[in-house]
Design goal:
CATH architecture of the largest domain: 3-Layer(aba) Sandwich
Number of domains: 2
Strand order of the largest sheet: 5-4-6-8-7
Radius of gyration: 34 Å
Helix content: 25-40%
Strand content: 5-15%
Low-confidence stretches: 4-15, 20-24, 26-33, 69-77, 359-371
Distance between the termini: 91 Å
Structural class: alpha/beta
CATH topology of the largest domain: Collagenase (Catalytic Domain)
């Protein structure tokens, strides 16, 4: 067998001392010129490709970790592909190199008749070089990951600042398909847009009652929302100003799902999911809702309080308030607060453009079903 550059022993047979292709004792590395130019170029290309893959993957991991993501699952498909490519390139380069070395040593180490083999260990520097080659990609990848952590943190801070709601610390909106945040003060394109929630027949009556109580709480605080009856009727007097019709309100359809709920980044099941579409505003700096739907995951809302929290999140999202980092909030995941807080209402006031939020409701006028 011959030296593979990774600390393995080479063998020579009894008799005259074996020599390497460079003319030195066995185990002495030959000059780089001993490798044909074409294969030398191929080996360099392989090392370059592998190094580039290690750098790219490490940089992406560093950025994602720096952003504070709790899971690298989104990187798994790309990581597997890159790892497969790196493995194939390394295999091809190693195979060519190994094949050449085997042929070289086979020609040099043909045993004379009756001779017995004796082991000749590779010099320590050569063994250390082999180990260094194996460890170098891991070390380089770790260094690159650490180097890109601040980049990821900067990206996360920039994204957070872009969706933060001015005047409502700890609250943020969401971005649309173009990656632009929803417009502050007119997320539907019109300030203080009335929103009517329609509830599918599949939503249990007990959960509908909880939705009804939360919408009533929001209306009492001045949020311009209403809820259809179980017969899918709504009353113009439930929104303001008076005289609204189907053409001047936005409908948000609420359905239910009794299957296994999705698991969020924090590891807990999703209580209510939102699907929405948006389009850029004329200025091209923000987006505005064109459609909004919600799905209530029945297995995750284990009790009236959980349903009410999901309903408050629905009301807040319809006003373009997407999340909060405040633990003492009525819309925070897992919060024990069972009502809209003043901070919740302030965030909705800023995003919806409804100055009446916080004001008392004057009471519903005569209820006339819409056509």
């Amino acid at each position: 067998m011959g030296d593979d550059g990774a600390g393995h022993e080479a063998f020579r047979w009894g008799g005259p001392p074996a020599t390497s292709p460079a003319g030195g004792p066995l185990g002495t590395p030959g000059p780089r010129a001993a490798l044909p130019r074409g294969r030398r170029s191929l080996r360099r290309t392989g090392w370059a490709v592998n190094a580039a893959i290690v750098l790219v993957v490490s940089a992406v991991i560093g950025i994602r970790v720096g952003e504070g993501t709790h899971s690298l699952a989104p990187l798994a498909p790309a990581g597997l592909v890159l790892a497969a490519v790196a493995g194939l390139v390394a295999l091809v380069v190693w195979g060519f190199h190994r094949r050449r070395r085997r042929r070289r040593w086979r020609r040099r180490l043909l045993p004379p008749p009756g001779a017995m083999p004796s082991a000749v260990p590779l010099p320590l520097p050569v063994q250390m070089m082999g180990m260094a080659r194996a460890v170098a990609p891991v070390v380089a990848g770790g260094v690159v990951v650490l180097g890109f952590l601040p980049v990821g943190r900067h990206v996360a801070d920039a994204d957070a600042a872009r969706v933060a709601i001015a005047g409502a610390p700890g609250y943020s909106t969401v971005t649309g398909p173009q990656g632009l945040p929803l417009a502050e003060g007119q997320p539907w394109g019109t300030p203080c847009q009335p929103v009517v929630f329609g509830v599918a027949a599949g939503v249990p009556d007990a959960d509908y009652v909880q939705l009804q109580s939360v919408v009533a709480e929001a209306r009492a605080a001045g949020v311009d929302v209403a809820l259809e009856t179980r017969e899918f009727q709504w009353f113009p007097g439930d929104v303001y100003p008076a005289g609204r019709t189907d053409a001047t309100v936005k409908f948000v359809w609420v359905t239910s799902n009794d299957g296994v709920p999705p698991i969020l980044a924090g590891g807990h099941p999703e209580h209510i999911g939102f699907g929405w579409d948006a389009t850029p505003d004329p200025g091209g700096t923000h987006e505005r809702f064109t459609d909004l739907q919600a799905t209530l995951y029945l297995r995750a809302v284990d009790g009236p309080m959980a349903v009410r929290r999901a309903a408050r999140q629905l009301v807040a999202f319809s006003q373009a308030v997407g999340a909060t980092t405040l633990g003492q909030s009525g819309i925070a995941d897992g919060s024990a607060v069972d009502h809209f807080t003043p901070a919740d209402l302030e965030a909705m006031r800023v995003m919806s453009g409804c100055p009446a939020i916080h004001g008392p409701d004057a009471g519903p006028p005569p209820r006339t079903p819409s056509p």
